[in-house]
Every structure is written in C-alpha cells, then in structure tokens.
Amino acid sequence: MAERLRNQASAYLRQHADNPVDWWPFGDAAFAEARRRNVPVFISVGYAACHWCHVMAHESFEDAATAQYLNENFVSVKVDREERPDVDAVYMAATQALTGQGGWPMSVFTLPDGRTFYAGTYFPPRQLQGMPSFRQVMEAVSSAWRDRPEEVETSAAQIAAHLASAQAGNRRLVGTLELAAESGPLSGDVLAAGVEAVAEQEDPRFGGLGGAPKFPPSPLLRFLLVYGSTDRPAAEAAASVAGRTLETMARSGLYDQLEGGFARYTVDRAWAIPHFEKMLYDNAQLLRLYAHWSRSAPTSDQRRLALQVSADTADWLAKRLRVEGGGFASSLDADTLVDGHRREGATYVWTPDELRTVLAGSGADANAVLSLLDLETGRMEDGASTLHFGRSLEPEEEQLWQRVRPALLAVRDRRPQPERDDKVVAGWNGLAIAGLADAALALGDAGDPGEKAAGLLDLAREAAGYLLRVHHRNGLLARVSHAGTAAGIEGLLEDYAGAAEGLFALYAATGEEQWYRAAEELVLAAEQRFIVDGVLQDTAVRTDQLAAAQGSLSAADPMDGPTPSGTALFAGVLVTYAAYSGSSRHRAIAEALLAHVQLVAARAPRAGGWAMSVLVQALEGPRELAVTGSDPALVGQLLRAGRTAGGPAVVVASGPGGETSVPLLRDRPAPDGGALAYLCRGMVCSRPVSTPEDLAAQFRALRS
After folding, report:
1. Helix axes 493-510, 426-445, angle to 10 degrees
2. How many CB atoms lie within 10 A of CB 664?
3. What is the pLDDT of residue 554?
C-alpha cells in the first residue's frame, strides 16, 4: 500500500510509504476517488521532524487493523505541512474552530469536496484520560457519514462559513491596496505601545516571552533590534528585551552548546529541555539576528557571544543541512533511531557519568566543567540531561567550555544521528541566504581575518545559485525541490518574497549585481502573481478543495507564525526594492500592506513582528547608502562604517560606478583611485564623503 508516496519530494510522505494505510497525496485524484466510492476523506497533516507524528504513525498507521478500517471506510490523504502550508493553514483553522486548539499531527475528516466536518490532533490507540481512541473517532465519523448525512452536511457548511468569515477578516486587515493607500501616511506611534506590550509579556525570571512551552520569537526579535537601533520612544526598552532574550537562549538547552543551531522550542519555562527538532526556518532567522545583535549589544562579552553563536549556527547549517548543489534541507528530526526504536533527543543528551568519562579522557577538570552546567534543570524523564547553562559565563568559564567542546562533540558524532528531511523550501532558503550574508558581514566587520566570512558568503552564493537554477523556471518559482529537482506546487507569496529577501541581502554583502537583478525579477513576478483585484493573496493558484473549505473569498494572512508572514516579507522586499530603484509605486504598495500594523502592534505584537520591523525601516526612509570607488580597501572601510552607523535597516549598494542595473548607484561618480559614500533618503543624497568618520557624522545628523 501507499506506493503513491514512495517518490514524493517530502521525506514525511516517504516515511509513510510502507504503511498498510492506502495513502494518497493531497490532490484532485484523492477527492475524486472519495466521490467515486462515496466515502469521506481522512487528512493527516504533519512533518518529518515531528515527534508526536512519529508516535501516531507507529501506534495507528503501522497497525494492520487500523489501516484496514481506514482503507475500507475512507480515502486517506497524507500532507506535509511544510510542503503544503496552504493546505495546513485551511485545515488548522478548521481544527482550531472545532476544538479550540491545534497542533501536529492533525487529523481532519472532510467531505469529498474538501469541507471539514470533524477534526482533532493526536489520537491515541486506546482511550486515554478522556481522549477517545483513534478507532473510536473513526467509527463515530463513519457512523455519522452513513446514518446522519444531514448532520454531516450541516456541520461542514457551518465550518466552511466560519472559515469564510475569517477570510473576510483577513481582507479587512490587509484591505484592498486602493483603500489602504487612502488611509494616509504611515505612522509609527503604535510601535512604542507594541514595545510596551512585549515588555509586559517578558518572563522576569527566565527571560523570553510567556511561560511553557517557550519558542524563539524570531520575527518579533527582528522588530525589537531594528526599533532599538533608532532614537524613537521606548527604543532602549526594545533593545534591552531583545538582548536579554538572545543572551538567555544562547546559554540555554534550546541552543546546541556543542555544535550550534537551535531546537524548535523548549517544553519548560527555563529554556532547558527542548523539543529536539531543528528547523531551517528557525536557524536561518536566528543566525541573522545574532549577527545583527553583535553590532549593537552593549558589552564586549555579549558581542563576542553573538558572533560565536552566529558563526557556529552557520557552521551547523553547512554541516547538517546543506544538500548537494548548495541548497539547505528543511530539518533534522526530533527523534533518533536507537536499536530500532525512536528516542526523542537521544543524540543530544548526557548522563553525568558519560560527561565525566569524556572529560577525564580529554584531560579536563570534570568537576570544573560540570559546575558550568545546570544538569538538574535540564534533566529529562530518563535521567539524562541537556547541556544547559542557564546563566552567563565568566570569560575564564567560556574559555574552559570552548576547550572541552571538541572532545564532547567527537563522542556525540559517533552516536546515531537524527534523520534529515532533504526537501529544499525556497522561502526558507532565502532566509538562510540572508542570514549567511549578514553573518559574513558581521564577522568581517568585527575583525575576522577573512577566511570565515568569505566561506559564509560562498555558502550564500551557492544556495542562491541553487534556488535560481533548480526552483526558478520560466519566471515562476517552485516551492520545494528534492535531489536537485523541483517538484510540487508553485511557490507561495512567502517563497517569492523570502527568496527576494535573501538575494537582496546577498547583493548588499557582495555588490554582485546578478543577485539584485534576480531579486528584482522575483519582486515583480510576485506583484503580478499574488495581487488579485487589488487584494494580496498567499497563493497564486488555489485548489477547488481549499476554496470549498473556506469560501470563495480569500486574502493573505498578515500574521506571523514561526516564520514571517508572506505579507510582511513582501512589504519588506518592496520597501527595499523601492529604495534601490526609486519606484514610488512599489513604495506605495508596501505602505498599503503595512496598514494592519496600526491594529496589531499593541494588541498582538508577537504576530506582527516582521511587519513592524518593515514599518520602522520605511519610517526611517529607509536610509540608503551607495558606495562607489575603485579602491577595494577604501570601499570596504566606508561600507563597514555605514553598516555600523546605519543599523540593520540600512539599504546598501556598492560598485565601481558607471554603468549599472541598480538605480541607486547611477549618477554616483567615483574618483579615480578612491571611494565615495552617498547617504540618501528617497534617492535624495547628502554630499558625498570619502572617510568613515564623515560618513558616521552624516548618519548621526540624519538621525537627529
């Protein structure tokens, strides 16, 4: 059974290819089969790195009796939420409407037209603590389908109407571009209130926001860092919250203290015990955030920590997620297969005796090293612990830890390793390209001798080349690829905008105009593909089933999740493109897409962080820096000064001058044998300067 899944791009689907369940991928054929057989559709949504998805698969989908019942009474559809976020979003909304909560694995029962009539998340094989067993759920759904069709139809119609109402709400939030443009000029007054709301949510004891479970609030941290670099009200508070959160995460069990890279979240308030899956989208964003923090952190120890985390996370990306050809895979599993059994986090945890054995063999003082760690807070149910500090380290303690890391990592590398989901997602790779490019600049500007920074830029170039070679065809962008071949659906808005974000960042880091031209092409294509009758959409092509499930009206969802929303990403690249090109039309579209920030900044800042950061950038001009010249050393000095003084929102262009495809560089003459810097807003520039000191003074004057 399940032969249809064997050659899918998604590792999650391929994981289920040997199940006795007769799985179908999401598509017209599955729903046509349900109509032919007159049975409901069971949709199971998850992803390859998901621990509880593996649990339900082992308990239910590998069970012959369960599979037989599913095969006889349903058409079963397996969906990778990372490959098909459009499908996941619709059925997650239905699940939350029915149950008040959501999560993965997600279990949804629909009519053959795609409308939901029952849904839940994980169901155990036996009734447990008031939760029905999966068999009980299947039998109840099947009975309702056979014996109470009117109730099923009524339920499906009500849920579809509810989701349609939510889509209408999105249309009101995003608005039509024409109406939003009429709302007047952008205002940043609400942003200080957003900072205050975030500060109230900060955990005063353990840092971060809220209680358990604790997630890295990456899009929001971007806003806090960008806003904190300004002179606006509450800027100091924004920078402080961001710094405390970033430092706490870097010293916690969320972060891999041996190899770099962050887990998806921790199950506890103290950041000590992670859910061990490691996702590209988290690490791409955090890599960039720590690079930005390394420029603005108030102490030298914090700046060194930020650079170390950024460099190590980049190394982890290259070692663990890079695929042949230069792209980056989606994730590492939460579980490790040990002696034929899946064990969550088995690769990463240690007993005190295991640590002492390795440390003694390395010649280190085991007691001194163990005193650095809070093994008790990081202790799991089986007695092993995560490597969790839970505090700042003194310089000599940091040096001790750096000395013993290689020995511990060498032992850990000999353990069984988690499986990797090799599918390449376009938008997440764009975020990774941006992170690598900005990390290379941060390391170089901090005095890296050049080899490390150059290596990161090469990784970014190779990933960008992979995206353009494999995913970009005939003006369209595919969302996923596997083994060097694009597969599946066209990219979503978040893919086009995320890829453009990465390409613009790579151009800013290198001055290589091919990346600017590719980013421009994606921005213009996204404008054509995703703005329909003046309303922004998340998808260029919507399936009949999803249209039935949530009504005919649709609009992009502007709210961030663990990744920035497509709306926010697109607004950001539009602001950047307008700064490079001088296009007032694209600036106006971006401003229209940011109108919803006025509603969400103070009420739900954690859902609007990326858009709030773009609004800051737009309000700041954004500042535009063009550096031209023929002396690489002088050009480099001016660029370093501009990046340091300008903060994370500055838009940078550089080149020799003369003929160029970047309008910001045009008519910016460079002297023979020297370099000039032009600081501009809206293409209106101050007098050119030739020294870093003069450029820094211009930035100070512009801010005042």
Report:
1. 20
2. 24
3. 82
DSSP designation for 441: H
Residues 6 or more apart in contact with residue 685 via CB below 8 angstroms: 624, 626, 668, 678, 679
- The 3-state secondary structure of 182-195 reads CCCCCCCHHHHHHH
Cβ distance 289 to 218 under 8 Å? yes
Which tokens go with 541?
A: 């092509």
Q: What is the DSSP letter of 376?
A: T
Considering only CA atoms, which of 572, 468, 485 is closest in space to residue 477? 468
Report the interhelical angle of 426-445 vs 300-316 (nearest 10°).
140
Please tell me the predicted confidence (pLDDT) of residue 172: 66
* Tokens encoding 479: 């969302």
CA distance 500 to 530: 15
User: Percent helix, strand and coil across the chain, each rounded to 5?
Assistant: 55, 15, 35
Neighbour count for residue 652 (Cβ, 10 Å): 23
pLDDT tens per residue, range 283-333: 999 999 999 999 999 999 999 999 999 999 999 999 999 999 999 999 999
Output 656-660 pairs: Cβ under 8 A, ≥24 positions apart: 656/628, 656/629, 656/630, 657/628, 657/629, 660/513
Q: Give the dihedral sign, CA 588/590/596/601.
A: negative
Pairing of strands 535-536, 531-532: antiparallel
Pairing of strands 23-25, 623-629: unpaired
* Contact assessment for residue 494 and residue 562, using Cβ atoms and an 8 Å cutoff: no
Instruction: Indicate yes or no: pTM above 0.85.
Output: yes
Mind listing the pLDDT tens digit for each residue in 235-247?
Answer: 999 999 999 999 9
Q: Record the tokens describing residue 559, joined without a space.
A: 């709210």
What per-residue confidence (pLDDT) applies to 177?
A: 58
Q: Look at residues 173, 290, 195 and name the one whose alpha carbon lies nearest to residue 599.
A: 173
Give the pLDDT confidence score for residue 51 in this predicted structure. 87
DSSP state of 607: G
Which of 370, 388, 367 is CA-nearest to residue 379?
388
Can the peptide bond before residue 663 be classed as cis, meaning omega within 30 degrees of 0?
A: no
Using CA atoms, how far apart are residues 5 and 12, in angstroms rounded to an integer?
9
The CB-side HSE value for 313 (13 A sphere, CA atoms) comes to 33
**Count of all residues that appear for the chain in the document:** 704
The span from the CA of 608 to the CA of 599, in Å, is 10
Name which of 92, 15, 18, 12 is nearest 3 in CA terms: 18
**Whole-number Å distance between alpha carbons of 431 and 220:** 15
Residue found under tokens 């500055």 = 650
Helix (H, G, I), strand (E, B) or coil at 457: helix
**What confidence score (pLDDT) does residue 180 get?**
52
Q: How far apart are CA 115 and CA 40, in angstroms?
A: 10
Residues of the chain with pLDDT under 70: 1-2, 171-184, 704
Q: How far apart are CA 474 and CA 593, in angstroms?
A: 27
* Chain Cα centroid distance, residue 27: 26
- Closest residue by Cα to residue 682 from 604, 586, 609: 586
User: Are the beta carbons of 142 and 530 closer than 8 angstroms?
Assistant: no
Please give the pLDDT value at position 166.
80
pLDDT for the residue 630: 87
3-class SS at 433? helix
Give the DSSP letter of residue 326. Answer: S
Q: Report DSSP state, residue 3.
A: G
**Alpha-carbon span 1 to 426, nearest angstrom:** 31
